[in-house]
Write a structure and sequence with these properties.
Elements (H helix, E strand, L loop, with lengths): L10 E3 L5 E3 L7 E7 L8 H12 L4 E7 L11 H12 L18 H9 L14 E4 L5 E5 L9 H17 L1
Amino acid sequence: MSESTSLGDFHATTIDGKDQDLGTYLGDVVLVVNTASKCGLTPQYEGLQHLYDAYAARGLVVLGFPCDQFGHQEPGTEEEIAGFCERNYGVSFPMFAKIDVNGADTHPLYAWLKSEKSGLLGGAIKWNFTKFLLDRDGRVVDRYAPQTEPAELTADIEEQLAATAEGAADA
């Protein structure tokens, strides 16, 4: 992938089966997270929803990508996942169909994210709830470990929202 690659170069299937051009989110600060419903970290959905509620009006969007590659912790169908997230955590941020984040069938978005910011295991995703923060141009700013609570990202999110707002004001 070239240096000019950004979030806008990818598509994904929404949790309700529609093709979504991820370029729709250019102009927003984006937090991309691989999720699971039966994981010890599943309560992070609450924190992710809190971030979305707190910052959506300023341009933050959270994108959830369910993944069943870690301990079979996302066994449900897309319909079951969507129902679980809404019922238990009030999730209203965009959710997508299950994908692979490692291995031969890695979704192209995750192949790119991992190439932009490697983690503890090099390019591989370590576990559910690995997070990537992208700026308004769709470029990867940072990567966070699964154990990093969503609330710990507040300062970095605010920095991206402020920096991009200042850049727009200067233009």
